[in-house]
């Protein structure tokens, strides 16, 4: 089992030197494990089952076959792998050989124990519990941990029943194992705790700290850990800037159906820095405390004004579009952003629309006359916030203006749209006026940034790109595969699935304790313990009729409270 867990946790050290994909850790992050790692674990698990089967069935022949077979297989593989790595890359091969050597040392120790077992033979009693041979603190803790491991107790119990010669059904076998385990816990309680104190002694402070203190701390941690995990105090938080961005503009006729793409861009762009004004923008969206991450959390995306594709629309379609245009027709903007994390939410999109209003006449005319500019006031949101899992949302009321111009090249008979950032009809402020305005808390003065003021900032930072722009505020995300999965679940889902689940388990643990009194508060377990061990001894000797008779005697004891009381009475002191 030590070899199995060594392979489970440290195989990545061997695998990372062999491949360039980061080993098991990187595969876990991607949600896909390498098949060779899974096959190795399956092989080790099958070998453990084979050894346990030989031990349970007292088959020395099967044990010898297993011992010499695995010895030959692992020795040949270790020699071959070490010899192959010695002629491969020097740096990586030394690391791989060291990991392989430790694996072989652990397996050699296992083989030594197996050889000693072959030499001295199996014990007569092989279907009991290792922890039950004596009562001690270490064995008690080991048994509690053994029962806490998922499926280990069930797998061992079912496997032993399948390999043993017995008259008991699987359900009866599980009953016997449960009685045996509960009696051992009562024995530990009697011999380690109760018998070491006198009547009237106070509970020791050490016991209060180890039991009540740790239990209380664990419950508080379960209750508050999700909130701390999703708070800004999480030390694993890191900036998650946008690495790629594109924009598509389209016209959406109200009386028509569908939409017609006008402009697309993003191939030529730059991510500008807002400098000292960035803190003011962060404060506008409620992130003013992120001073350390401002330069990566806050980005100003500036796009080239010229569309990356030409605009070619058949004349009948163009005429129907012009006929359907009204003041309620809108210009649709669709931003598409790409970031590195979290997994499953790396690509986000945000669609916004703004009615043409009074500009629809100008836009209608520009469809047939190149070079005519149409001002779309407040065309799209100026500040977008990217959350880890909730998508993109516009922040505040600030919006950016766009001027749409249909350009044409008569020689090549091509047309394309240009989208230029514009201050609109608002008066453009000077750079000094803008900085002064942004330094004042708008909430305190009853005013907020104007669209024109923010446009002046964008124009200064975006040169020479004068196309569409947007301010991106990316929330920090946690690093690591487990942290990303928890972040993807969300704090509400984490509370429902984990916190409430643990709460339900704790409530079941602390409820109906009175029903356990007849089976846990026993003055003595000597007679019951001897009866259970007699069942195992009868099975080991092959006396199956006696095994069945003793088992149902034990069942009758537990069925009758009076008989159970008599069996668990403390022996009376002998009188002289």
TrEMBL record:
InterPro entries: Piezo (IPR027272), Piezo_cap_dom (IPR031334), Piezo_THU9_anchor (IPR056770). The chain crosses the membrane at residues 35-52, 64-83, 95-116, 209-230, 486-506. One of its GO terms (molecular function) is monoatomic cation channel activity. The keyword Ribonucleoprotein does not apply. Keywords: Membrane, Transmembrane, Transmembrane helix. One of its GO terms (cellular component) is membrane. Residues 289-569 form the Piezo non-specific cation channel cap domain. One of its GO terms (biological process) is cellular response to mechanical stimulus. Residues 1-231 form the Piezo THU9 and anchor domain. PANTHER family: PIEZO-TYPE MECHANOSENSITIVE ION CHANNEL COMPONENT. This is Piezo non-specific cation channel R-Ras-binding domain-containing protein. It comes from Prasinoderma singulare.
């Amino acid at each position: 089992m030590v070899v199995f867990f060594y392979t489970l946790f440290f195989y990545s050290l061997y695998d990372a030197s062999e491949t360039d994909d980061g080993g098991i850790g990187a595969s876990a992050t991607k949600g896909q494990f390498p098949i060779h790692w899974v096959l190795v674990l399956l092989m080790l698990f099958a070998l453990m089952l084979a050894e346990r089967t030989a031990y349970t069935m007292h088959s020395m022949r099967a044990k010898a076959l297993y011992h010499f077979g695995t010895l030959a297989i692992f020795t040949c593989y270790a020699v071959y792998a070490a010899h192959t790595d010695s002629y491969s890359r020097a740096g990586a091969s030394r690391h791989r050989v060291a990991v392989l050597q430790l694996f072989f040392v652990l397996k050699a120790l296992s083989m030594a124990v197996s050889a000693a077992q072959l030499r001295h033979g199996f014990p007569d009693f092989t279907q009991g519990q290792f922890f039950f041979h004596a009562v001690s603190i270490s064995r008690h803790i080991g048994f509690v941990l053994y029962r806490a491991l998922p499926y280990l107790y069930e797998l061992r119990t079912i496997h032993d029943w399948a390999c043993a010669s017995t008259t008991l059904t699987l359900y009866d076998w599980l009953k016997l194992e449960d009685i045996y385990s509960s009696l051992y816990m009562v024995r530990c309680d009697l011999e380690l705790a109760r018998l070491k104190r006198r009547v009237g002694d106070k509970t020791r402070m050490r016991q209060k700290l180890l039991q009540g203190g740790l239990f209380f701390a664990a419950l508080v941690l379960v209750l508050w850990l999700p909130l701390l995990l999703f708070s800004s105090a999480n030390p694993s938080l890191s900036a998650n800037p946008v690495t790629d961005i594109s924009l598509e503009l389209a016209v959406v006729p109200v009386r028509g159906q569908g939409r017609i793409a006008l402009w697309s861009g993003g191939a030529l762009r730059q991510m500008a820095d807002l400098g000292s004004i960035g803190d003011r923008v962060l404060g506008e969206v409620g992130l003013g405390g992120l001073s350390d991450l401002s330069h990566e959390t806050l980005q100003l995306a500036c796009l080239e004004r010229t569309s990356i594709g030409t605009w070619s629309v058949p004349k009948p379609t163009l005429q129907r579009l012009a006929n359907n245009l009204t003041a309620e027709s809108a210009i649709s903007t669709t931003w598409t952003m790409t970031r590195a994390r979290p997994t499953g939410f790396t690509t986000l999109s945000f669609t916004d629309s703004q009615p043409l209003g009074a500009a629809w006449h100008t836009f209608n005319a520009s469809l047939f006359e190149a070079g005519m500019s149409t001002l779309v006031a407040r065309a799209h949101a100026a500040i977008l916030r990217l959350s880890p899992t909730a998508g993109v949302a516009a922040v505040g009321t600030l919006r950016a203006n766009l001027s749409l111009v249909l350009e044409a090249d008569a020689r090549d008979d091509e047309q394309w749209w240009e989208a230029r950032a514009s201050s609109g009809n608002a008066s453009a402020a000077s750079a000094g006026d803008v900085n002064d305005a942004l330094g004042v808390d708008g909430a305190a003065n009853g005013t907020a940034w104007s669209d024109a003021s923010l446009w002046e900032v964008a124009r200064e930072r975006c040169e020479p790109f004068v196309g569409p722009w947007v301010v991106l505020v990316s929330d920090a995300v946690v690093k690591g595969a487990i942290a990303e999965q928890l972040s993807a679940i969300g704090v509400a889902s984490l509370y429902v699935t984990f916190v409430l689940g643990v709460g339900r388990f704790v409530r079941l643990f602390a409820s109906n304790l009175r029903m356990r009194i007849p089976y846990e508060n026993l003055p003595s377990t000597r007679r019951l313990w001897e009866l259970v061990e007699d069942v195992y001894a009868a099975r080991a000797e092959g006396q199956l009729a006696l095994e069945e008779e003793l088992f149902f005697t034990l069942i009758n004891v537990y069925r009758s409270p009076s008989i159970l009381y008599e069996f668990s009475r403390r022996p009376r002191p002998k009188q002289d």
